[in-house]
Amino acid sequence: MGVEGCTKCIKYLLFVFNFIFWLAGGIILGVALWLRHDSQTTSILYLQLGDKQAPNTFYVGIYILIAVGAVMMFVGFLGCYGAIQESQCLLGTFFTCLVILFACEVAAGIWGFVNKDQIAKDVKQFYDQAFQQALMAEPEMNNGKAVVKTFHETLDCCGPDNVIGVITPLWRDDLCPKKDFTLKSVVEPTNCHKKIDELFSGKLYLIGIAAIVVAVIMIFEMILSMVLCCGIRNSSVY
């Protein structure tokens, strides 16, 4: 015998929430794949300076997002099917998966918060090393110039956040994007340290919003799944 009354409303409400959860998983998976193949990040994070590879801390977070999105789609489908079938076993499994997924999201959020500044810092250090090599007398002995030009062309910037970065466009036009010389370009130079910060902070902000929305949906689903489970158990007694 199926559930009736308020429990039936909860059943369909849980189905709707799970459908939204499934869609959210698909959106997160799509956003993660877009971030993984975004032209700006791939152009920079695939660079290699001699034997040193660009920092891949950012991609670790992206791979976590891809896994989370795929799992969310599976869990969302499990919840939808369990709610429609009124299966205590499926709903219990769904609740367990939600708890594990929620714990993983909290852990990933803590990891991201701790490492959010480190990601940009590592990339800036990598850029500074390449910039120093590009200014050496024998540029043919390293690929620093190619790495620096990739940074400059991708981010539309020139030089680090110091005096050398300010004067570089004036005497090394082979490293910097060609721009019209104006007083503003000298007074307010666009250094690459600032552009790197903007690049990663903007993407992490997008990830943070998605994580908060998903966390709220998961909390509601955990509550509804337990209420529905109790309703199914009680209805089976009569």
TrEMBL record:
It is found in: Basolateral cell membrane; Membrane. One of its GO terms (biological process) is regulation of cell population proliferation. Disulfide bonds join 157-192, 158-176. The lineage of its organism: Eukaryota, Metazoa, Chordata, Craniata, Vertebrata. Its main location: membrane. It comes from Aramus guarauna. GO terms for cellular component: basolateral plasma membrane. The chain crosses the membrane at residues 12-35, 56-84, 90-114, 204-228. Belongs to the tetraspanin (TM4SF) family. PROSITE patterns: TM4_1. GO terms for molecular function: lipid binding. It is a multi-pass membrane protein. This is Tetraspanin.
